[in-house]
Specification:
By secondary structure, the chain is of the alpha/beta class. It has 2 domains: 194 residues, 2-enoyl-CoA Hydratase, Chain A, domain 1; 44 residues, no CATH class. Helix content is 46%, strand content 17%. It has a 6-stranded mixed beta sheet with strand order 1-2-3-5-7-10, with helices on both faces. A 4-stranded mixed beta sheet has the order 4-6-8-9. A hairpin with a 2-residue loop joins strand 1 and strand 2.
Length: 256
C-alpha cells in the first residue's frame, strides 16, 4: 500500500516507520503522498485505534525535506508544495485518534514539522530538533512557524527560526516541545505504553479532547469544549463510564 512507509498493527496500535534510512528519512513527494494516505487510513480504519510515527534507523526521525526536489520550482509551485504539506499535516493534527511521534535522532525542517503535527512527542536521548530553513533561503512551509510558536512560545520559536539552530532532547523537554526523553532502546516501548493507557479510555471522549485542544488556538475553543461536553451525554460510553465509576469497576468502552 505504501512505498516509503512500513506499518504494523498490533492490539489497535498502528506503528508507522518512515523507511528511507539511507536518506535520513527525508520527506520527498512519495513520503508526503504516503503520509496523506496514512492519515486517511488511521481515521477510517476501525481496527486502528491509535498510531506511533517514527523513522527507520538510529540517526533520524526525519532529517528534513528532500532538497533535490526544490530546485527549479517557481513561486507558485513552491506554494503548491507547501499547501499540500500543510493540508496533510493538518489532517494528522486533527485526527480523532491519538498519534504520537517517537523521535529518534534528527527531526529537522519538515521532520520537526511532522513531529509537531502529531498530538505529542517522545524523544530518544540523541534526538535533535530544528527549523534550519533560513540556511537555504527558505522558511518552514508545512506549519512550522505556527506550531513551534504554539508549543514553545514566540520568543524561543523566533530564535530557532531565525538562527536555524538545533536543540537537543533535554532542551526540547525543558521547552515543552517533547513530553518525555528516554534512552533510544526504550523509545518505542515508552510510546507504546502511553498509547496503551490512552486506548483504555473512551474513544469518543479522546477524539473530543483532541478537537477541543486543537481549537484552543482559535476563538472557538470554549464553544468546541461546550459542544463536546454536551454531546458526550448522548454516548453509551459516558453512561458506561459513569456506571463503572459508581459500581467501582473498570469501564468497558465501545466507542459508541
Amino acid at each position: 500500500m505504501y512505498t516509503t512507509l512500513l506499518t504494523s498493527l498490533t492490539n489497535g496500535i498502528l506503528t508507522v516507520t518512515i523507511n528511507r534510512a539511507d536518506k535520513l528519512n527525508a520527506i520527498n513527494r512519495d513520503v508526503m503522498q504516503d503520509l496523506g494516505e496514512l492519515a486517511g487510513e488511521i481515521e477510517s480504519n476501525a481496527d486502528v485505534r491509535g498510531a506511533i510515527i517514527t523513522g527507520a534507523g538510529q540517526k533520524a526521525f526525519v532529517a528534513g525535506a528532500d532538497i533535490s526536489e526544490f530546485t527549479g520550482l517557481s513561486s507558485a509551485q513552491g506554494r503548491g508544495m507547501a499547501q499540500k504539506g500543510q493540508d496533510i499535516f493538518f489532517r494528522i493534527e486533527q485526527c480523532s485518534k491519538p498519534i504520537i511521534a517517537a523521535v529518534n535522532g534528527f527531526a529537522l525542517g519538515g521532520g520537526c514539522e511532522l513531529a509537531m503535527a502529531c498530538h505529542f512527542r517522545i524523544a530518544s536521548e540523541n534526538a535533535k530538533f530544528g527549523q534550519p530553513e533560513v540556511n537555504l533561503g527558505l522558511v518552514p512551509g508545512y506549519g512550522g512557524t505556527q506550531r513551534l510558536v504554539q508549543l514553545i512560545g514566540k520568543g524561543r520559536a523566533i530564535e530557532l527560526l531565525l538562527t536555524g539552530n538545533m536543540i537537543d532532547a533535554p532542551t526540547a523537554l525543558a521547552y515543552g516541545l517533547v513530553n518525555h526523553v528516554v534512552p533510544q532502546a526504550e523509545l518505542m516501548t515508552k510510546a507504546t505504553q502511553i498509547l496503551e493507557t490512552i486506548l483504555q479510555k473512551a474513544p469518543l471522549a479522546i477524539g473530543h479532547c483532541i478537537a477541543a485542544a486543537n481549537a484552543a488556538y482559535s476563538d472557538k475553543g470554549y464553544e468546541v469544549e461546550l459542544n463536546a461536553f454536551g454531546a458526550s451525554f448522548d454516548t453509551d460510553d459516558m453512561k458506561e463510564g459513569a456506571a463503572a465509576f459508581l459500581e467501582k469497576r473498570k469501564a468497558n468502552f465501545k466507542g459508541k
